[in-house]
Write a structure and sequence with these properties.
Layout: E1 5-10, H1 22-26, H2 40-49, E2 52-56, H3 76-81, E3 86-91, H4 97-104, E4 110-115, E5 118-121, E6 124-125, H5 137-140, H6 143-149, E7 157-162, E8 180-181, E9 195-197, H7 214-223, E10 238-243, E11 246-249, E12 257-261, H8 262-274, E13 279-282, E14 286-287, H9 300-308, E15 312-316, E16 326-327, E17 335-340, E18 356-361, E19 365-368, E20 373-377, H10 383-399, H11 406-415, H12 435-457
Parallel strand pairs: 7-10, 7-13, 8-10, 13-15, 15-17, 17-18
Antiparallel strand pairs: 1-3, 1-4, 2-3, 5-12, 6-20, 9-11, 11-12, 14-16, 19-20
Helix pairs in contact: 2-4, 6-12, 7-10, 8-9, 10-12, 11-12
């Protein structure tokens, strides 16, 4: 948990219009305010924290270009989904944040209040390696056949909300759009023993990762050119890199991990939507068991916002090997992805649950790294296989004048999936991704619809 901040969403009609957006505050174009309502809410915050700095988590879609004024002109969807009414309240270190949240949640003008929880992506990232003749997970998901059927479309934008990327990696040449960095963590806001590495306080347009490599592992699976990797499953789609996970060193772990606050991750997801992402890969998650019983589920508002904009959301199911829920993977209409190994059986670490939709390869995947290449393991790296397949489905649908949304994608992917090996695959979804079969199923769906329309017209 971020020990010095919380997130509050006001009910419709109660959010003050004058509070600036975080981007404007962090870029120096506006100042945070010290109160929200001039009444009970502010008195509670003062009683627990003494003082506070408050800003809107999100800017308005229509005002992105208005520096210092990004809090104006929120549209009806931004209001109803809650993203226009969500505020980050930064308090003094040592504040009893959970108690403060509990008090605020009792107010009728507060729709939800939650600590600004931290999300960790501690997947297995290998040291740099030379590409080798290891197993070929792209063959398991029938990537070559899928890409032969549909090469993808560079007009399809794929949001990658992660630890950032290396902009000049040769495997990603020509596959990256401009991105953003929403990370803003303070050294006194993380738990004792955690060391933040590199830049972690600038909200800017440089999504570069220098320490972790988690985002690069995902990017190579989706969009590698095929120089020394298998060609990325997203084909010609373009990645919008959104750095929302800082680099951090945890006690007892040799390699840095990705660490992100809920507010920073939510800001990145909304910005990816506003920049035109049709698919968003979210290889991060917060264990439901880590939340207070009264806490709202993380990311609910931005998930709804993205879905209302027709986005397809893909999330890693988690890596604890238990039957449980991680968020955002457990939200309805998010495609939760588990992992299988070379033996086609669910990986022992793959989190299970009724919400898991499908599995994809997630053990020792050769992908791009910070320098050269790396082997990666985790559901974090199963998810981008599914995100890539969704990018091809969207491209194929556009080629045939058929929009593909989240509901359609889930149906196509699950009904065309391949069977698992072994018997113990409960809570792992419908089966293993078959990207080629999903494209064939989409074509059949379109053909059937057109045939029925022609019959009705005749």
């Amino acid at each position: 948990m971020n020990s010095n901040s919380l997130i509050v969403t006001m009910t419709l009609g109660e959010a003050p219009d004058s509070v600036p957006a975080l981007l404007d505050v962090r870029s120096g174009h506006a100042r945070a305010v010290q109160g929200l309502d001039g009444g009970a809410l502010d008195r509670i915050v003062t009683r627990f924290a003494g003082a506070a700095r408050i800003a809107r988590v999100h800017g308005a879609r229509a005002s992105w270009h208005l520096r210092g004024q990004r809090h104006v002109r929120f549209d009806a969807l931004e209001q109803t989904c809650g993203v226009a009414r969500t505020f980050l309240i930064e308090v003094m270190p040592g504040t009893a944040v959970r108690d403060l949240v509990r008090e605020l949640a009792q107010l009728s003008k507060v729709a939800s209040a939650t600590p600004n929880y931290m999300c960790v992506s501690p997947c297995d990232l290998g040291a740099p390696v030379q590409p080798d003749a290891a197993w070929a997970p792209h063959l398991m998901v029938r990537a070559p056949e899928a890409l032969a059927h549909e090469p993808g479309d560079n007009a399809v934008l794929l949001g990658l909300v992660d630890s950032g990327i290396v902009t000049d990696h040769p495997e990603l040449a020509g596959r990256l759009r401009a991105g953003l960095d929403t990370v803003h963590l303070s050294d006194d806001g993380v738990s004792p023993g955690i060391t933040l590495l590199g830049e972690h306080q600038n909200f800017d347009s440089n999504p570069r990762d220098k320490y972790v490599g988690h985002g690069m592992g995902c990017a190579g699976i989706m969009s590698g050119l095929g120089l020394q990797l298998a060609p990325g499953l997203a084909g010609e789609a373009q990645i919008i890199p959104m750095r929302a996970l800082a680099a951090a060193r945890l006690p007892g772990r040799a390699n840095p991990v990705g660490l992100g606050a809920i507010a920073d991750l939510d800001a990145a997801v909304k910005l990816a939507v506003d920049l035109g992402a049709k698919i968003i890969n979210m290889s991060f998650g917060t264990d439901d068991a880590a939340l207070s019983p009264e806490s709202p589920k993380p990311h609910a508002d931005v998930v709804r916002y993205a879905l209302e904009h027709g986005c397809i959301l893909i999330a890693a199911s988690g890596n604890n090997g238990q039957w449980t829920r991680y968020w955002p993977a457990a939200h309805p209409s998010v495609i939760a992805v588990g992992a299988v190994g070379e033996n086609r059986a669910p990986a022992t670490f793959s989190t299970r649950g009724d919400h898991v939709s499908i599995c994809a390869p997630g053990e020792r995947i050769l992908s791009a790294g910070l320098t050269g290449y790396q082997h990666v393991t985790g559901t974090s790296f199963a998810a981008p296989f599914v995100a890539g397949a969704c990018a091809l489905l969207v491209a194929r649908g556009a080629r045939r004048a058929m929009p593909v949304d989240a509901e359609c994608a889930i149906e196509l992917l699950t009904k065309s999936s391949q069977p698992f090996a072994g018997k113990d695959h409960s809570g792992c979804g419908a089966g293993i991704l078959d990207a080629a079969a999903a494209l064939v199923a989409l074509d059949a769906m379109i053909d059937r619809m057109r045939s029925e329309e022609d019959t009705e017209d005749g």
